[in-house]
What we know:
Elements: H1 3-32, H2 36-40, H3 50-86, H4 101-106, H5 114-124
Amino acid sequence: MEKKNLSSFKELLLKKKAELQKGIQHIADDALKTSQRDAAGDLSAYSLHMADVATDNYDREFSLGLADKEQAVVHRINAAMERIDDGSYGKCELCDKKIAVARLKAVPYAELCVPCQESQEKKKR
Length: 125
């Protein structure tokens, strides 16, 4: 792949990584740094209703699950940056063929070409 294309993909990856890290930080601030009472807006000294506590716990777990998935994408972005540095970026990790530029523009951290990705997804079913 040409250096010009590599630098544009590196820039795209860095931008995506910054967006994800900002989102992860926002989720962490919302989910971890607020008490259940503060999140519910309860100012009284009475305990929260069990259903409210369950809903709050579900919301926190859901938010942390989203953050976990976003963190996994950050790891994939870091791996893509390493592939740029070592010259293997844009090659499928299974068949060693070139990954289409259109796919890399859509998913710049893609490790597999479309046929190999489809094959992997079929195996998971």
